[in-house]
């Protein structure tokens, strides 16, 4: 009972990262507390790296309004993106994908930032809407989250930037074990402190951790309230010190702590007991692991059990949606032929509506 009521308070703040796709104009966006990856670096449009990097398969997504920020993973022939259902507008389905690269010319050494914007259409997993309805009647334990979606880009494979490298997703027969490394990436805001503030940030983390431990043991009353105020004060200070990097790709290594088959979720936490997790803006982004020396997509960033994103990350277990993904991709490939016939007609009329490339010289 001591920890029961505290757990209820924590549950109240669970972030179904339906807020994790966030408006990046907000100063309160949060994310993966990891290392900044940044845009792909290319020479004459092609990646010089032989190793696969998150910036080659991670994609920034926005809805039709241009405000909602999410992440996604490039799959199949590069014209498909796996993301979270709550990142997709359930009415229009319109989704925009952004590919960023810093390109250097081998002949002139001129560098430029190239952003390729491609329109697409997102389809939400039917289980997501069913789970939303079940949550409203408090039967949420009966259904998996269904928080996974597939976006079909209105582009030919040749129009996808050359540096991009689609990932293979885990199949229903893929075996993963507890304790493995999970690399998760997303376009949120990093919690890493600016230079010279590391000590202050560490001090705040220590106070928060100690207060949380005491609060779990304390009975409801003045002492619990006092500890909660301490936690909130130091959380606010920690976020004040954090350097915003909203819209910049970040990546972090977590450990797989649990597999929730009923919810179709993987639970991953920070291996060094610091607060690193997915959060606002990271929704839909990739969570991968190495299988037979190959990087495989095993999870989709979905939610975290804390409004400040200081908790374990909950990832959609992609293995349980393998059949749905395959069926959807087959259907969309069949429909794509008709779409591109119409698109060719539009282009002959002098209008290219779906793929836009912006180039800007940089120092």
Structure, explained:
With 363 residues, this protein is an alpha+beta fold. The chain has two domains: 2-192 and 242-362, Trypsin-like serine proteases (Thrombin, subunit H, Beta Barrel); 198-241. It has helices at residues 2-12, 54-57, 126-136, 198-217, 222-241, 322-348, and strands at 22-23, 35-36, 40-43, 58-63, 68-75, 80-83, 94-104, 111-124, 149-153, 168-169, 181-186, 250-260, 265-269, 286-291, 294-304, 313-317, 355-362. The model is unreliable at 1-20, 23-32, 190-199 and 240-246 (pLDDT under 50). Helix 4 (198-217) runs antiparallel to helix 5. The radius of gyration is 21 Å and the shape is globular. The strands form two sheets. Strands 4-5-6-9-8-7 form a six-stranded antiparallel barrel. A six-stranded antiparallel β-barrel has the order 11-12-13-16-15-14. The chain contains six helices and 17 strands.
Summarize the structure.
By secondary structure, the chain is of the alpha+beta class. Helix content is 26%, strand content 30%.
Kindly report the spatial arrangement of strands forming the biggest sheet.
4-5-6-9-8-7
Q: Give me the count of strands.
A: 17
The total domain count is: 2
Following the backbone from N to C, one meets helices and strands in this order, namely HEEEHEEEEEHEEEHHEEEEEHE
Rounded to the nearest angstrom, the distance between the terminal CA atoms is: 60 Å
CATH architecture of the largest domain: Beta Barrel
Q: Please tell me how large the radius of gyration is.
A: 21 Å
- CATH fold type of the largest domain: Thrombin, subunit H
Strand content: 25-35%
The helix-and-strand class reads alpha+beta
Secondary structure tally, helices: 6
- Name the shape in a single word: globular
Largest sheet: 6 strands, antiparallel, barrel
Mean pLDDT: 75
CATH superfamily of the largest domain: Trypsin-like serine proteases
């Amino acid at each position: 009972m001591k920890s029961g009521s505290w757990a209820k308070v924590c549950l109240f703040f669970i972030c179904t990262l339906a807020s994790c796709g966030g408006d990046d104009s907000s100063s309160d966006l949060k994310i993966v507390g990891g290392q900044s990856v940044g845009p792909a670096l290319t020479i004459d449009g092609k990646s010089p790296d032989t190793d696969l990097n998150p910036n080659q398969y991670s994609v920034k997504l926005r809805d039709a309004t241009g405000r909602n920020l999410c992440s996604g993973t490039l799959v199949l022939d590069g014209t498909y993106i796996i993301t979270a259902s709550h990142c997709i507008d359930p009415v229009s389905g319109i989704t925009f994908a952004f590919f960023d690269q810093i390109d250097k010319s081998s002949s002139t050494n001129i560098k430029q930032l190239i952003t390729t914007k491609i329109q697409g259409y997102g389809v939400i997993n039917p289980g997501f809407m069913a789970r939303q309805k079940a949550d409203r009647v408090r039967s949420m334990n009966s259904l998996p989250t269904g928080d996974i979606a597939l976006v079909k880009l209105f582009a030919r494979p040749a129009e996808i930037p050359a540096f991009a490298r689609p990932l293979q997703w885990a199949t229903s027969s893929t075996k993963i074990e507890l304790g493995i490394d999970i690399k998760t990436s997303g376009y949120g805001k990093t919690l890493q402190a600016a230079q010279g503030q590391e000590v202050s940030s560490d001090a705040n983390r220590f106070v928060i951790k100690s207060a949380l431990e005491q609060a779990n043991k304390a009975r409801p009353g003045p002492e619990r309230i006092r500890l909660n105020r301490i936690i909130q004060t130091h959380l606010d200070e920690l976020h004040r010190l954090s350097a915003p990097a909203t819209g910049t790709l970040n990546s972090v290594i977590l450990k797989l702590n649990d597999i929730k088959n009923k919810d179709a979720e993987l639970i991953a936490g920070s291996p060094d007991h610091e607060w690193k997790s997915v959060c606002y803006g990271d929704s839909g982004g990739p969570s991968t692991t190495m299988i037979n020396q190959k990087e495989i997509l095993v999870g989709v960033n979905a939610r975290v059990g804390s409004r400040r994103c200081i908790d374990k990350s909950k990832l959609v277990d992609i293995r349980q949606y393998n059949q749905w993904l395959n069926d959807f991709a087959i259907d969309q490939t069949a429909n794509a032929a008709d779409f591109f016939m119409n698109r060719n007609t539009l282009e002959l009329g002098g209008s290219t509506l779906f793929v836009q490339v912006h180039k800007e010289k940089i120092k």
